[in-house]
Amino acid sequence: MGFPHREYPAMLSSLQCFFRMNLTLPRTLAEKIIARAANLDRVKSGDIVTCQVDLAMMHDSGGPRRVAPILKRLGVGVWNPDKVVLVSDHYVPGDDDNAKSILQLTRDWAHANAIKNFHDMKGICHVVLPEHGHLKPGMFVVGGDSHSPTGGAFGCFMFGIGATDLAGVLVTGETWIKVPATIRINLSGKLRNGISAKDINLALCRKLGMGGGKYQVIEFAGSGIENLDIEERMTLCNMTAELGAMTGIIAPDTVTEQYLESVGAGGTNSADWQSDPDANYLEQHDLDLSDLAPQVAAPHSPANAGPVEAHVDTPLDRAYIGACTGAKLGDLHMAATILKGQTAAPNVRLMVAPASVKILADAKADGTFDILTAAGAEFLASGCGICAGYIGDLLGENEVCISSTARNFQGRMGASSSKVYLASPYTVAASAIRGRVTDPRGFLERVAHD
Amino acid sequence: MTDDQKIFSGRAWVFGDGINTDVLAPGRYMAAPIKELAGHCLEALDPTFAANVQPGDLVIAGEDFGVGSSREQAAEVLKLLGIGAVIAKSFGGIFFRNAFNLGLLAIVCEQSATIEAGSKVHVDPAAGQICIPDKNIILTSEPVPDFLLEMANRGGLVAQLETRLLGKAGKNDQ
CB contact, 8 Å: A385 with chain B? Predict the structure, then answer.
């Protein structure tokens, strides 16, 4: 039995070739991160693997009040308190008894479990994490919130999980995943004046639907990325949740490096965390940013999106600029560009909830706060606020709102009879001025002529 | 559910596409005790649901069931109301994990729209079969992977962790 001796060298050479190929097969960025976290040479989509978690993020709603009873039942503590970041944002500002007690329970748990990275009422988790330099390229991160894909803007593999899953991570430091495939969105060109990442997201929601992401990874790539700043990249990744993806991701570049440096999280080699040129993608879609018009999603789904024209002149009661999706500093700047020297229509309540306390301070320092206040904006606490619909001045019966947030599900932001139109901060601001859904580009032309 | 009840039956409540976490567990009741929250489950779509649902009933839906928030109360209220399983054309990824973590079966069935409200349905999650005896129809569902079925049958992730960490026998306390 066996092969003639003369064939051994050829066989050996082909075996070596096979193994070398296997190790150097092109991989997506997500596959590289998952393989590292799973301590495997390579992973392929569909594999069930167990990953070591580099960081676990949770907030006041899905965090301590849900996980503490589980840890107590199991009789164990947190596997590594230094790898946990806790953020109180959902029940901020805590203006009723339930909210107060949830916020206090969160503080007590943070103290009892020696959680050093506890950000109490400092802003929304997805914005507070990068502000404090918690996220770096190549990390495998779980977040107890569905908009956790926001972390993909920093080259992390960060995805949302529920509280019981989170408790499992807190206890073991690991979690299982079914390795996702990657859907690549190739962005080219440059957004025109008055158009933002939010419009890209809404256009994709229309094109792909809320299930279009198939619980796989959506990687944004292509020359169009270069022109998007870090906050716009956060918005892009954030709303992969509305595309039904497991997460979104963008490979780090000089924009990422400069931001990370500025928050004391520099030093990563971006070249290590890129998709290989010939990596295998489940699907690829192309989007020319220079073609894009302002988008609006009608009630009650982000997938009901389309060009703003279809909804122009729809009467509004409220204009809301808030949330991790739509109230970062750049989002407030977009609104201020439109609202400078203007005022909101008398029948419309213009409300602004900056995504973090730092963003509010920055907006005060650079004059944005004054512009928005002069336009009639009412400033709300830096938290999830009425976007999550847990607390605050929720929408009343039949109230119609245009919002820079991510979701317009029926009843999410208040009464079941209320209606929410989703749009960019530019479009929300322009609509506030007229009290009706409005294309912001008209106001920008006016600014240009002034 | 115990191991000897792998095939089960229930009466169908039928909903459409895009049944999201916010209609399953409305945000404004999220600070309330879970029993109170359960009373508002799906009320925006069917105000009679929570009051009239019976233990063992099944929720049938179209695409993207449980899409939206990571709030696992969306699955927990269904479990608390006694729902035996959710059968949908597709699920939001986080909801799917949450359901099994809490001991609720989420079953993917391409032809879920065939099932009519009020009909009696037999489900074999491991084999991937759904039977509607009155219409003499058998539908194919995606077989639930063994490790997920075992976790759900045990009562969820916490019971499984209990076994792993403490060496205790899994107990069904759901």
Answer: no
Contact state of A246 with B93 under an 8 Å Cβ cutoff: yes
CA end-to-end distance (rounded Å), chain B: 9
Q: CATH classification of A296-449 is 3.40.109.10, yes or no?
A: no
Q: Which residue of B has its CA nearest to A416?
A: B44
Q: Does B72 touch chain A if contact means CB atoms closer than 8 Å?
A: yes
With beta carbons less than 8 A apart as the criterion, state whether A91 and A326 touch. Answer: no
Q: Mind listing the pLDDT tens digit for each residue in A116-153?
A: 999 999 999 999 999 999 999 999 999 999 999 999 99
Instruction: Give chain B's length.
Output: 174
Which residues of chain A from 292 to 331 reach within 8 Å of chain B, CB to CB?
301
Q: What share of chain B is helix, strand, coil (3-state, %, to 5)?
A: 35, 20, 45
Query: Reduced to 3 states, what is the DSSP secondary structure of residue A418?
Result: coil
Select from A162, A164, A416 the Cβ nearest to the Cβ of B44.
Answer: A416
Q: CB of A357 within 8 Å of any CB in chain B?
A: no
Q: Is residue B124 packed enough to be buried (19+ CB in 10 Å), middle (13-18) or exposed (0-12)? A: middle
What H or E segment, with its residue span, contains residue A285?
strand A283-288
What number is the ipTM of this complex?
Answer: 0.93
User: Residue B94: which of A162, A210, A301 has the nearest Cβ?
Assistant: A162
Q: What are phi and psi of A326, to 5 degrees?
A: -135, 25
Residue in chain B closest to A392 (alpha carbons) equals B28
Give me the helix-helix angle, A230-238 and A197-208, nearest 10°.
20
Q: Which residues pair with B139 in a beta bridge?
A: B130
Q: Find out whether A401 and A431 touch, Cβ atoms under 8 Å.
A: no
Mutation target to probe the A interface, by most A beta carbons within 10 A, among B76, B94, B144, B162 is B94
Chain B positions in Cβ-Cβ contact with residue A395 (cut-off 8 Å): none
For residues A59 and B30, what is the distance between their CA atoms, to the nearest angstrom? 14
Q: How far, in Å, CA of A238 to CA of A407, rounded? A: 11
* Positions of CATH 3.30.499.10 in chain A: 31-289, 296-449
| Beta carbons of B89 and B49 less than 8 angstroms apart | no
**What is the architecture of the domain spanning B3-166?**
Alpha-Beta Barrel (3.20)
Tens-place pLDDT, residues A309-361? 999 999 999 999 999 999 999 999 999 999 999 999 999 999 999 999 999 99
Does the domain at A31-289 match CATH 3.30.499.10? Answer given as: yes
- In terms of DSSP H, where are the helices of B14-137? 21-24, 34-38, 49-52, 73-80, 93-101
Mutation target among A47, A210, A246, A384 for the B interface, most CBs of B within 10 A? A210
